[in-house]
Amino acid sequence: MLATPVLERIGTAPAVLVDELVGYVAMVNAATGNPAVTTAARAPTDLLDDIRLAVAGMPAAVAALLPDALLGVHLAHGLGSSAITDVVADRHGNTLGAVVALDIDALLTRCANAWATWKESSPFLPTGSLTLEVRIAEPADDTRAGAIQFLLLHEFGHVLSAGSGFLPDWWRMPDGVRVANDYDFLPLAWDIDGDNRILPRREEDFAGRDRVRYYGEPQLDGVDMLPVYESLQQSSFPTLYASTNAYDDFAESFATYVHCVLLRRPWRARILRDGAVQHATDDFWSSGRSAPKRAFMERLLAAA
Fold first, then answer.
1. For 178, which of 182, 215, 233, 288 could close a Cys bridge (C-beta 3.0–4.6 Å)?
2. What DSSP assignment string belongs to the chain?
3. Domain-by-domain residue ranges, the chain?
4. pTM (2 d.p.)
């Protein structure tokens, strides 16, 4: 796979990878109580075209980082989320690269803003008066390829962080974890406690953050939406998804930086009560609270 162009690494997974992927996702879903049942998928041609279009439209600095790290982008049913990324290693434990699986059912019918709104609403139980609306694309870019591109930027953040020293290796947790300051990205918002758990720094935590769950059974009431988003605005997390763990913090920081700063596209959430705006997120990457992460992303992509 590493010897082929990146755009040719997209499609149906090799059988051995399907077997491992299905087993891995089943284990993750069982641990989190997610009832999804994973099977391999063969994508229609138009969806494969949109995936390739999404990757081809990424900035050159991102494209330069992928050839030695990304083994492939493959399709599945029933992942339990929009996508999942994990490493592939040889029999000696040496990391060869990372593979991304996309859930075909999450992507077939949703354009960019509809997909982002669906995903970001998933931590909250529905309520009659409050709704969340997320915009990641202007009308001309509100396409299925736009949704796939943002999703893949998030997953490529996971790909690029694997074995990088930015964060502890998630596949080796909790063994072999060093102190927080030994990692490049981790101490920007996270710390490691005596039990090798990665926890947000005290000034980054907020009420309700530990109950934020994406894709599974919502743990937050709809009425929690407003105070949670108001608290998020005081943190260094670019999105609510970023606040859930250090790995998704890196992936969301990477995705939103490329999306908003390099591609100059929006990421904005609004909370509405009966259609009236109650809260709107700021432009994170133009705010002072983004400064340490902005400097990190600038260094990463300048090197590429």
1. 182
2. -TTS-GGGSEESPPHHHHHHHHHHHHHHHHHHT-----EE----HHHHHHHHHHHHTS-HHHHTTSTTTEEEEEEEE--SSSEEEEEEE-TTS-EEEEEEEEEHHHHSS--HHHHHHHHHHTTB---SSEEEEEE-S-GGG-SHHHHHHHHHHHHHHHHHHTTSSSS--GGGTTTT---GGGSSSGGGTEEE-TTS-EEE-GGG--TTGGG--SSSS--B-GGGHHHHHHHHTTSS-SSTGGGS-HHHHHHHHHHHIIIIIIS----EEEEEETTEEEEE---GGGSGGGHHHHHHHHHHHHH-
3. 6-303
4. 0.94
